Hints:
globular, 0% helix, seven-stranded mixed beta sheet, single chain
Amino acid sequence: QVQLAESGGGLVQAGDSLRLSCTASGRTFSSLDMGWFRQAPGKERDFVATIRRTAMTSNYADSVKGRFTISRDNAKNTVYLQMNSLKPEDTAVYYCAGDLAGPRSLSTKPGEYDYWGQGTQVTVSS
């Protein structure tokens, strides 16, 4: 089993930056592909970014490409999401997720992730 805990959310103004962290405990972190998703009130949970267990490959939603960067430190069992040039439409609860994956490619689908954190709120004011 894996436990994931997000941190780093908060209230910021448009144009500001935030860095989210997600620390894992339990199963070997380096065996998991990791992803970030977000969910705004009344909306579905949307893909934000994902990174391969080796950190060699990553993928981003078009809406955050060029502004957000996903990274990981397997020695610290932590995945990060650096968010720059934040916009009001980035306001949501942000979740990290772990995917046992196996040989298939990085997934953007929430249903294919095996472990989830409880989320951290990010609010961007205009």
